Amino acid sequence: QVQLVESGGGLVQTGGSLRLFCAASGRTFSSYTMGWFRQAPGKEREFVAGISWNGDSTYIADSVKGRFTISRDNAKSAVYLQMNSLKPEDTAVYYCGARRIVYSPVVVEVNQYDYWGQGTQVTVSS
Fold first, then answer.
1. How many helices (H) and strands (E) does the chain have?
2. 3-class secondary-structure state, position 22
3. Which residues contact 77 (CB under 8 A, 6 or more apart)?
4. 95 burial class (0-12, 13-18, 19+ CB within 10 angstroms)?
5. pLDDT tops 80 at residue 27
6. Positive or negative, the Cα torsion across 96, 99, 105, 108?
7. Which listed residue, of 13, 51, 58, 99, carries a Cα 20 to 30 Å from 19's Cα?
8. Which of 22-31, 58-67, 81-90 has the lowest mean pLDDT?
9. Cα separation, 87 vs 77, whole angstroms
């Protein structure tokens, strides 16, 4: 079982930056593939970025490629999402997710992630 808590969201102007933080509990965090997702009002939850259990592999959605970076620190049981050059269309609740299958590859499907945090709101003003 993994518990996830996101933080770092807020209100920022277009072009600004934010760094999201996902704190995980559980002794097996280092074996889980992790992902960041977002959900805007009236829209489905969508994949943003994913990172493999050892950090060697990452995958970034085309909509944020070149602006967002995902990283992790297994010693701290943490996953980060660095968001630069933010746009109004990045406004959403951002969620951290973990795959229950250990040592699994990064995938983009929401239903392949088993554990979720409560989310953190990111609002980008124009």
1. 0, 11
2. strand
3. 23, 24, 25, 26, 29, 30
4. buried
5. no
6. negative
7. 99
8. 22-31
9. 29
